[in-house]
Amino acid sequence: MKRFLKSLLAGAAVLLMILPVSAKAKRKDSCAFVFKSTGNPYGEKMMDGFKSACEELGYDAILRAPEQPTAEGQIQIIEQLITQKVKAICISANDADALQPVLTKAMKRGIKVCAVDSNVNAASRMVFVNQADSEKIGRTLIQAAYDMTGGGGDIAVLSATSQATNQNLWIDWMKKELSENASKYAKLKLVKIAYGDDLRDKSVSETEGLLRSFPDLKCIIAPTTVGIAACSKVVADKGLIGKVDVTGLGLPSEMAEAITKGVCPYMFLWNPIDEGYLAGYVSVTLAKGAIKGEEGDSFAAGRLGHYNVVKAADGGTEILLGPPFKFDSTNIDKWKTVY
Amino acid sequence: MNLSVFKDKKPGSFRELGLLAFIVVISLLVEIRNPMFFTLSNLEDIGVNTAILSILAVGMMMVLLTAGIDLSIGATIAFSGMCVALTLEAHPELPVGVALVEGILLGAVIGLILGIFISRFNILPIIASLGMMDIVRGFTYVVSKSKWVSAYQMPDDFKNFATGNIFGISNFIIIAIIVYVCFFYFINYTKVGRWIYAVGSNPAAAKISGIPKRRVIALVYMLMGALAGLAGVLWVSKYASAQGNTAEGEEMSVIAACVIGGVSITGGRGKVSGLILGCLLFGILDNALPLINVSPFWQKAIQGAVILTAVVANAVIRRQSDLKALKSRKI
Amino acid sequence: MENRRIILEEKKWNPRTFFFQWEWMLVALLLLVHILNGIASPYYFSVDTFLSTPMSFLDQAFIVFPMMLVLISGNGNIDISVGSTVALSSVIMGVSYNHGIPMGASIFICFFIATLCGFINGCILVKFPELPAMIVTLSTMILYRGIAYIVLQNQAAGKFPSWFDYFGWGYVGPIPFIFLMFIVCAVIYGIVIHKTAFGRSVYAIGNNRTAALYSGIKTSRLTLIIFTLTGFMSGFTALFLTSRMGSTRPNIASGYELDVIAMAVLGGVSTDGGKGRIWGPILSIFIIGYMQYGLGLLNQSAQVVMIILGFLLIGSVLVQEIHIGKNRVLPGRK
After folding, report:
1. C136 touches chain B (CB under 8 A)
2. Could you give all domains of chain A from N- to C-terminal order, each with its CATH number?
3. Considering the entire predicted model, what is its pTM?
4. Which residues of B touch A211 (CB under 8 A)?
5. Quick one: which of A47, A170, B326, C171 has the fewest CB in 10 Å?
6. Segment A17-45, tens digit of pLDDT
7. pLDDT, tens digit (0-9, with 9 covering 90-100), for C56-81
8. Where are the beta strands (DSSP E) in chain A?
């Protein structure tokens, strides 16, 4: 009996230790941000931006992410947020369609929903905070590959998960750029699209696979921060600097070494902190009712200036952060400490 | 049919032969499709990529020999890798050796705790390791505050350890060879090694004949943990990144490699030669499929089919060899 | 000698031994979870929470029932391919619908595929009884998931008719439809496991396979049936999960197998076989589900939940070992 009570007490003690101090009375209104998975440095930076925006506007920020990059994980989190009666939810989705039922439930309860980074379908959101025009991203990356390979050669793409909305959209635009300008890219051949799942180890193995299977590979495009960093490491390790170029979307902090070594002549990104900041402003502005996410809405976003809501290609609406920014050896040192 | 030919051969050798033949056939097929397969650099790639799996398989084999199972090794890899990465981030001047020792010790401690749960408290290995897996994985996230440790936060000599070599042979392959040699000697020529076989094949008899069953079981899990810890350090060095979800699902691959290699999950049976072949098959599969241009979406299914075939073939061959062994008995 | 007396004699109802059963401890644990959650978050105690929350975790629960049977049947029986079976049947259902097959027929196909997957598992195990179930289901786990990837690659299948949402999101009065179905299944399985000869035979196999075989129980047929059942119930999970998500992809339901096993084990089912009653897993489903939900309301990360779950799992087995050992009231205890 005594031992039983002791074990029960021990269990209760463990539980109590882990629970934080309970939420007292009424909290400030809050906006929630849900990312694709925990730990991703890109997501972390967005969360920083989101939080500072919310704090500027007097709202609490709730930052969540599932530990696995799955739709089910995000559905569970959104359910919990609905119960907590948050005012707005901003999500970077693992799946464009799977969240529709739960997000419509949220919107029915008066919660404003917007998407950022990785979109959801038009019915699941009020507006999408787009980091940069998807078409531009796709086309610019192919043009960069063309430039780096000197006009011809094999190129490959190392993507994230095969289901991620933004990845598939950019890849589609890359393919369009290749097919619409067939004469220009006659000698450029896209040989494979590999999936690194935003996991470092898988990205490394996939890159090694690409290098093995296609000995004439000249350039790898990796439109994912995890992928481009992994790629660069493999290319550098195998002593292929100069023979195989890497480009794509990468965080300057992670890619500084690769750019200075010449593994990656140049790459693109935008400021994820700004992206999160803008998303935060959009969420709060939606929550306050100042905008409804309809075409033509216009609002102020703190230090970033004024923005307009425009029509998006999938039938919904979006807000564009700005054009993609090019990082190369001339400016990488300046940016590697910022993000 | 003259069965006296089989009189002196142990039944097990049939199994390994079948696996070896399978590997040779697959390699030839791949080579025909893509001559890049048998190049030195590609073979070395296979070696390096298989190194981590092989080290883990050694530990898992010991666990399986005692009729146990350890589902927590993925979490242990992540935890030890993360701790080492955090240590090196804070103190980049520490030599690689310290990192290796730290990883091995952490892994050994986790393994020991698991071993005690199983041996002293009689918790079934599958449940205990399932619970440990959750706990250790959870702590990996807690320790890292859910953040990743990226390449630029790690010291250079640590990252270069993975690609470094001694006399032209990759560091990883050397470590794997050392582990295997020690293990081979331990399991076949020491008293404690033989005890492991005994405990797995007949626990009651082992106990009665004075073998300290509990200690053997605890030891086995501790060794598995230590090897997983070592693998964790190597993993982080190779991929230059430590994440909370590192090595998820790795335990299944390791178990599959062991089973293909002929280690019995019910304990008491398994040879090092089979283990090496099993890991080799896995490594070749991983390496070969992209080489022969198999779409990434087919890879999983092919892996599953191969494992299933290998396992069933194992069973069929074992039946044949058991039958032959029976027939050749002098009645 | 002691044990035999307990089983054969008409036991006097001793409140102490009655309440010391594992299932009552689970009840206490469930209450504890509710109380702690309620203290910690002001949003917890509402009708909505209690009735609607189960919608998010009950989809896995359907597999727990046949998994119980699989685990009880002993011999190291286990099925870790259920997650992949869910994914495959869901994917094929989606693809069928998107290729013009009417939704009703697609749902039927979903169940068919799921049952087939389970049936294949069962067949292999019956043909090769020396193969451990762990290994066979490990390979089919990889294989089934792989086939799902071949079928759908990186696409999604979906755009189901709006009435399809009803399965995962609909209500019958105040009770969610999925909750109702769960209760129906729980009742059916409760009766089957504890009140039919079939259920008894499964316990018999789990406790002493040889004796069961020699007493006329068709062990092979039973094994085939329980694995096929596991497949069939995975079809339910696939249906509800797909309905909740409104679309399907090859990567859904990953890790479900370990979750289901944890639910069963926490509920007192031993992976060794021969032990376990229906109430345990039912309670543990709710314990784990509400605990995850409550911690989520506090915006605790999933990691904390994992650690607690791990401790619960080990702790539950420990407690059962230490305290319940002498007071077992279960049939045919070895």
Report:
1. yes
2. 30-132+272-322 (3.40.50.2300), 134-269 (3.40.50.2300)
3. 0.85
4. none
5. B326
6. 444 333 444 567 899 999 998 878 888 88
7. 889 899 999 999 999 999 888 999 99
8. 30-34, 60-64, 88-91, 112-116, 127-130, 153-159, 188-195, 217-222, 245-248, 266-269, 298-300, 306-308, 310-311, 317-320, 325-328
